[in-house]
Amino acid sequence: MENPAQDKAFPVSWDMFHRDSRALAWRLSSVGEWKAIVCITRGGLVPAGIVARELGIRTIETVCIASYHDYDTQGRLDVIKPVDPKVVDLDDGEGSGVLVIDDLVDTGKTMKVVREMLPKAHFATVYAKPVGVPMVDTFVTEVSQDTWIYFPWDMGWQFQPPLAKETAG
Ligand SMILES: O=P(O)(O)OC[C@H]1O[C@H](OP(=O)(O)OP(=O)(O)O)[C@H](O)[C@@H]1O
Ligand SMILES: Nc1nc2[nH]cnc2c(=O)[nH]1
Ligand SMILES: [Mg+2]
């Protein structure tokens, strides 16, 4: 099965996300140099800002894709906005000189669509699951396929009942 039930939780705090995105920038800094970042919205917006700051990249473009319409179930993949041709054509019309950033790769379907637009770009994510790993050139942390990653922008503070109350009765 390509994407089994994702019943393990990997919660990520803002601090963790900042540290892991900086680690991504650190890895990328020894891989190459890029003229522009293309971030895959919306999840890619946050790491793209951090990596752009670390690597001194000021041209930042978006490709707007949505597929997980129903929380954790992937549906039809919608390209809401393609990459600006000015960015595709920076070097050779195939994405050389472009760094594509997303928060994570899961099945790899989102990355595959963007790879078709920018075949020579470098693809990077902060987190990766095994099925998606072949689609990404650089990432920081791998989690198992049956794990759901909870990002800080999707979370909120909530009262936690004390253990004693949970186990009573
Ligand atoms: O490797 P895949 O199985 O294709 O999944 C990975 C994509 O899923 C999430 O985006 P989502 O479509 O939920 O949109 P969002 O970034 O706006 O949250 C995530 O941000 C990746 O872009
Ligand atoms: N937040 C979040 N979005 C996803 N999209 C695909 N996989 C995931 C995941 O594990 N977490
Ligand atoms: Mg996304």
From TrEMBL:
Protein residues bound to 5-phospho-alpha-D-ribose 1-diphosphate: R42, G43, D102, D103, L104, V105, D106, T107, G108, K109, T110
MF (Gene Ontology): glycosyltransferase activity
Annotated residues for binding of guanine: D106, I149
Binding site for Mg(2+): D103
Subcellular locations according to the entry: Cell membrane
Positions of the Phosphoribosyltransferase domain: 14-160
Membrane topology annotation: Peripheral membrane protein
Pfam families named in the record: Pribosyltran (PF00156)
Key word Cell inner membrane present: no
Pathway membership, UniProt: Purine metabolism; XMP biosynthesis via salvage pathway; XMP from xanthine: step 1/1; Purine metabolism; GMP biosynthesis via salvage pathway; GMP from guanine: step 1/1
InterPro entries noted in UniProt: PRTase-like, PRTase_dom, Xanthine_Guanine_PRibTrfase
Top-level division of the source organism's lineage: Bacteria
Binding site for xanthine: D106, I149
Keyword DNA-binding appears in the UniProt entry: no
Family as reported in the entry's similarity comment: Belongs to the purine/pyrimidine phosphoribosyltransferase family. XGPT subfamily.
Name by which UniProt lists this protein: Xanthine-guanine phosphoribosyltransferase
Organism phylogeny: Bacteria, Pseudomonadati, Pseudomonadota, Alphaproteobacteria, Hyphomicrobiales
Protein's gene: gpt
